[in-house]
Amino acid sequence: MTLQTALAETAGKRFALLYGFPNPKAAPVFKRVGYGKLGEILRHVRVLRHSTYLARRMPKPLAAIAGVFVDMGVRLRDGWRSRSDVRLHAQWSDLVDARFDALWQASAPTQGVFAIRDAAFARWRFDACPLEKTRYLLLSDANDTLLAWFACQVHEDILHVRDFWSITAAQGMSRPHVDALLRAAGAAGHVAVSVEMATRAERLAGWQATGFLVRSQRTVFGKWSDGRDASSADLYFTSADEDE
Predict the structure, then answer these.
(1) In 3D, which of 157, 143, 158, 141 has the Cα closest to residue 196?
(2) 213 Cα distance to chain centroid
(3) Which pLDDT score is estimated for 10?
(4) Span 158-176, mean pLDDT?
(5) Using 50, 70 and 90 to split pLDDT, how confident is the model at 158?
(6) Residue 232's domain is classified under what CATH number?
(7) Is 160 within a domain?
(8) Global pTM?
(9) Is 30 contained in some domain?
(10) Beta carbons within 10 angstroms of residue 120's beta carbon
(11) DSSP at 86
(12) Number of domains in the chain
C-alpha cells in the first residue's frame, strides 16, 4: 500500500494520467491510492468456424455437420455485405512496416487518450517482445498506401488482435477494414477472432457491424494528476496499452 502510494505520487509529477488494468483482487488497492474507474475494456469475439462452439450444445458428429452449413451461411452473408466495398490488398508481415509512420501522421487524433501508433511504438511493443510472436495484417489501396494494420497473435487457433490502427481509427475502425481482417483470418484457418478495446461506443460500430460480440470485460482504473474526474477521459485503449 505504501509502495503504491509512493509510486502514484512520483509518477503524478511526470505524467498527466496514470492508469492500470488490475485484476479484481487488486482493484481495492487502486481505489485506496486514489484511482477511479476510467471505463471498461471489452473483449469482443467473432466466430469464424462454428463446429467447436456448436459441440458445446450438441453431439460432436452433429456439430461438425451443422458447423459446415453455418459457416457457409455466414460467409455468404459476409460476402453480400462487402460486395460494394473498395478493393483492398491484404498482406501478412512478420515485422512492422515503415508505412506505419505515414499512416499515423495522416490520421493522428488531436484529442483524447491515445498512445502514439507509429512504427517505433509497434517495434518496441511487439517486434522487440520475446514473449509472443506477432504478425501484422496490412491493408493497402491500389496505390500501395497503407490504410490499416492489425497486430495479431495466435493462441489455440484463435487470432487475437492486440492492437490496430487505420486512417479512420480515431473516429472508429471502418466496417470494410474489419471485414478484410475476417477474410484474412478465415483464409488462415482460424476459428475465431478476438479484440480488446476500451473506448467510446461509436468507435466500436465497425466491429459490431461485422458480428463481433462482447464476451468479457475488465475495469480500467486511472487518476488524472490535476485531480479531474477519472471518468472524463476519452479513452482509446487496446491490449497493447496493458503492461506485461
Answers:
(1) 158
(2) 13
(3) 61
(4) 98
(5) very high
(6) 3.40.630.30
(7) yes
(8) 0.91
(9) yes
(10) 12
(11) P
(12) 1
pLDDT of residue 3: 55
158-166 and 192-199 beta bridge pairing: parallel
Write the CB contacts of 202 (distance below 8 Å, at least 6 apart in sequence).
Answer: 171, 172
Q: Cell match 511526470: residue?
A: 14
Alpha helices in the chain, H assignment, sequence order: 2-12, 27-32, 51-54, 60-81, 100-107, 119-122, 175-187, 205-208
Burial class (CB in 10 A: 0-12, 13-18, 19+), 39: buried
pLDDT of 175-214, one tens digit each? 999 999 999 999 999 999 999 999 999 999 999 999 999 9
139 falls within a domain: yes
Q: With respect to residue 74, please indicate whether it lies within any of the assigned structural domains.
A: no
More confident call, 123 vs 227: 123
Residue 33, CB-side half-sphere exposure with 13 Å CA sphere? 23
Full residue range of the structural domain in which residue 212 is found? 2-48+88-241
Distance CA 39, CA 145 (A): 34
The per-residue pLDDT for 23 is 83
Rounded to the nearest integer, the mean pLDDT of the chain is 91
Rounded distance, CA 149 to CA 146, Å? 8
Closest by Cα among 219, 239, 220, 238 to 17: 220
* Tens digits of residue pLDDT in 84-110: 888 999 999 999 999 999 999 999 999
The position carrying cell 505515414 is 102
Q: How many residues are there in the chain?
A: 244
